[in-house]
Design goal:
194 residues; five-stranded parallel beta sheet; HalX-type transcriptional regulator; alpha/beta; phosphoprotein; 14% strand; HalX_domain
Length: 194
């Protein structure tokens, strides 16, 4: 990301009306590119792309497959899954940075892109921490206490978050706004209830 150029957001969405809406919401602050399929998105992905808004359910290459290829590439972009699919424990294996459940609002999309751009300046440890905390908050907002208690994957996630929190406490003096961050994520995850 260069200082004077606006950040580049790549919208990967097979529904043209939805993609156009996201573009209208973001185009005043960002350079917005659009791809209607996973294969087109991969062709458009280069070192200038800062954030990818990736639909999870698309014909052809699914968002999950595109995400895997992005993470296997040299790209250092942040990826938000934007989907109507209710999150399940399978998200723990996915390399996204943020998970938005449709329908989303303009302010939610702006906040997500802004947060991802800020997080792209963090080191790898802090990026992993925030990605895992976001997954934890997403699951906590959509799963019952019983489901969480029964999940080995969730227990391992919680242990890893605690481990990273301890590591960051030693190196950064702690993540000061951890509770605020989690509360904000829960609020975004439950945004339709406002």
């Amino acid at each position: 990301m260069s200082g004077s150029e606006p950040p580049v957001v790549l919208i990967v969405e097979d529904e043209p009306d939805v993609a156009e809406t996201y573009k209208l919401w973001l185009q005043d602050e960002y350079e917005v590119r659009m791809a209607e399929s996973g294969s087109t998105a991969l062709e458009m992905l280069d070192e200038t792309v800062d954030v990818v808004l990736l639909d999870r359910m698309m014909p052809g290459l699914s968002g999950d497959e595109v995400l895997g290829r992005i993470r296997d590439s040299d790209s250092d972009c942040r990826v938000a899954m934007v989907t109507a699919v209710e999150p399940d424990f399978d998200i723990l294996e996915m390399g996204f940075d943020s998970y938005l459940t449709k329908p989303i609002r303009s302010d939610e999309l702006h906040d997500t892109v802004s947060n991802l751009l800020e997080r792209s300046t963090y080191d790898d440890l802090l990026q992993e921490y925030y990605s895992l905390v976001e997954k934890q908050a997403t699951l906590e907002a959509t799963k019952s206490h019983a489901e969480l208690a029964e999940s080995e994957e969730y227990r391992e996630l919680t242990e890893r978050v605690d481990e990273l929190d301890d590591d960051l406490s030693e190196t950064l003096g702690g993540v000061e706004d951890d509770e605020d961050f989690i509360a904000t994520l829960r609020e975004l995850s439950n945004g339709d209830e406002h």
